[in-house]
Amino acid sequence: MGKIKTSISLYSLQNEYLNGRMSLDDIFQFLKDNKIDGVEILPDQMIPGAPEPDEETLAHWHELVDKYHQELSCTDVFLNTNLYDNRTLTLKEDIKLMKKEIELAHKMGFKTIRMISMTPPEVVKPILPLAEKYGITLTLELHAGLSWGIPETERYLELMKEIDSPYLGITVDTGIFCRRIPRVMSEYWKQVTGVSQETIDFCNSFFDKGEDVARYGFHPTPEFEAGVAKYGKTEADKIYITYAQGYENKPLSIMDDYLKYIKHFHFKLYEMTEEGQEYSIDYPEILQYLHDKGYDGYVSTEYEGNRFVLPGNPMIEKEQVIAHQEMLRRELKKVQGE
Question: How many CB atoms neighbour CB 161 within 10 A?
Answer without folding.
Answer: 13
